[in-house]
């Protein structure tokens, strides 16, 4: 595949001190239960406190019918984030369903492979997980996925406050998984040239940055999430990141091994390291970057519906594509994963959504996380109603029970579905809300409250 620059900036710079203060308040008041708590809860607010100009919605690719209902642009401003937030995932108003509920009355399907979605890199991402589960008819998200910012080494070490809420979510239930993308270099999205990247890789291979990764490992152990899945140096076969492999694959592999060895040396750790390329050849074949079975636990692939006009069958068969990924993992005795996947260059492509879900049902990845913001997603991106219907129907109400539920009439699917009621933003009468101010409450995902029990 011709190298595809993603045109997706994942992070904005943030102020760690404010983030730490906000999350410290959250950590002091959160208890247990869906999303955050039963005794202490988060009631979603519908948008940030200040207005802003409307933004345009990207049009679907040529040849894909456009939704019949215009999509309203956001009418609220995004304050300067206190945690890293993907630019294209700027906080939205409370999402409304993009598809009708699947029919009820058929036997419930088996538990799906562990799945989740990337919903926001900060505390808002945790708050949205319970809402997405509700939209899916109660199907529980078992995987939380976030990214460490790659602006400075202090970020990559896990700045105080950033990981706390994610760790809290993971500790609530034993069968949950926290997936954390970890950059291998600071200034990771600043367009650093190949010569400097080559020099940085060689410095890393010689041990110059070991102490940063030791600090991160210790931070995760201290937060009692020692089994975190580490997606280290993701999409290394591309051209987007400073931690790319292409300028010096041998130095990159040595550097990877050094990081893994350093993090595994921290007492109490149980990390799993996920080697995740982007699908296809991209700038270099991802197989040239593979650092060896002794330092890789999972072989992942980020697979978006791109480039324009490429069918799903072609995505399977292309060099270094989906089929080669599962074959390579099998040959090395490793499970596969899909940390990032979703729509992209081909618009609202329900066929891609259907085929990708079927592919994962067939090949049983250890986990998958849909990138759920425009243009890739379905729940927070209303320009993809047909794909949203496919995704929701496939995952709606999936549990480990086989007891059929009472039948009810099935609504007729529509490209412009009628939104159903969204979760209430009012705390229940059993708790007393804590006023933190609109700005902090927005980034925490809602009001915090104490149980009266």
Q: Got a strand count?
A: 11
Contiguous runs where pLDDT drops below 50 for at least 5 residues? 1-98, 104-108, 401-445, 447-453
Radius of gyration: 21 Å
Any idea what the shape is? globular
Beta-strand content estimate: 5-15%
Helix content: 25-40%
Tally of helical segments: 12
Query: Which strands sit side by side, in order, in the main sheet?
Result: 2-3-4-5-6-7-8-9
Biggest sheet statistics: 8 strands, parallel, barrel
Class inferred from helices and paired strands: alpha/beta
What is the typical, i.e. mean, pLDDT? 75
Distance linking N and C termini: 59 Å
The topology string of helices and strands comes to HEEHEHHEHHEHEEHHEHEHEHE
Structural write-up:
With 453 residues, the protein is α/β, with parallel strands linked by helices. 28% of the residues lie in helices and 12% in strands. It is built from twelve helices and eleven strands. Strands 2-3-4-5-6-7-8-9 form an eight-stranded parallel barrel, surrounded by four helices. The chain has a three-stranded antiparallel β-sheet with strand order 1-11-10. Helix 10 (350-363) packs parallel to helix 11. The longest helix is centred in the middle third of the chain and has 16 residues, at 249-264. It starts with 15 loop residues before the first helix and ends with a strand.
């Amino acid at each position: 595949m011709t190298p595809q620059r993603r045109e997706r900036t994942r992070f904005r710079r943030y102020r760690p001190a404010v983030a730490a203060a906000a999350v410290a308040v959250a950590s002091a008041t959160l208890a247990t239960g869906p999303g955050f708590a039963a005794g202490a809860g988060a009631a979603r607010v519908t948008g940030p406190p200040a207005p802003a100009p409307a933004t345009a919605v990207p049009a679907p690719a040529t040849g894909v019918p456009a939704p019949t209902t215009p999509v309203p642009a956001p009418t609220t401003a995004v304050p300067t984030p206190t945690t890293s937030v993907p630019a294209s995932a700027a906080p939205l108003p409370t999402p409304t369903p993009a598809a009708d509920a699947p029919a009820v009355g058929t036997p419930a399907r088996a538990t799906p492979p562990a799945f989740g979605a990337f919903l926001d890199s900060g505390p808002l991402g945790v708050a949205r997980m319970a809402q997405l589960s509700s939209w899916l008819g109660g199907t529980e998200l078992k995987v939380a996925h976030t990214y460490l910012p790659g602006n400075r080494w202090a970020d990559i070490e896990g700045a105080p406050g950033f990981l706390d809420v994610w760790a809290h979510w993971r500790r609530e239930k034993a069968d949950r998984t926290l997936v954390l993308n970890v950059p291998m270099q600071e200034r990771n999205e600043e367009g650093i040239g190949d010569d400097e990247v080559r020099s940085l890789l060689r410095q890393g291979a010689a041990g110059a940055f070991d102490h940063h990764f030791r600090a991160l490992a210790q931070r995760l152990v201290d937060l009692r999430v020692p089994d975190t899945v580490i997606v280290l140096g993701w999409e290394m076969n591309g051209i987007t990141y400073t931690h790319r492999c292409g300028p010096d694959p041998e130095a990159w592999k040595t550097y990877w091994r050094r990081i893994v060895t350093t993090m595994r040396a921290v007492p109490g750790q149980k990390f799993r390291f996920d080697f995740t390329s982007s699908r296809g050849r991209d700038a270099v074949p991802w197989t040239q970057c593979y650092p060896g079975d002794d330092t890789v636990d999972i072989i992942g692939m980020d697979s978006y519906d791109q480039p324009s006009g490429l069918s799903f069958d072609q995505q399977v068969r292309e060099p270094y594509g989906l089929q080669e990924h599962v074959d390579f993992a099998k040959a090395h005795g490793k499970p596969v994963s899909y940390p990032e996947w979703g729509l992209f260059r081909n618009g609202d492509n329900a066929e891609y959504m259907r085929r990708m879900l079927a592919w994962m049902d067939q090949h049983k990845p250890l986990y998958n996380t849909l990138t759920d913001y425009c243009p890739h997603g379905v729940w927070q991106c209303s320009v993809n109603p047909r794909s949203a219907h496919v995704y929701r129907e496939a995952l709606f109400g999936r549990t480990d029970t086989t007891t059929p539920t009472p039948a009810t009439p099935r609504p007729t699917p529509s490209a412009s579905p009628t939104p159903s009621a969204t979760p209430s933003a009012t705390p229940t009468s059993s708790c007393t809300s804590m006023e933190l101010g609109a700005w902090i409450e927005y980034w925490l995902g809602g009001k915090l409250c104490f149980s009266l029990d």
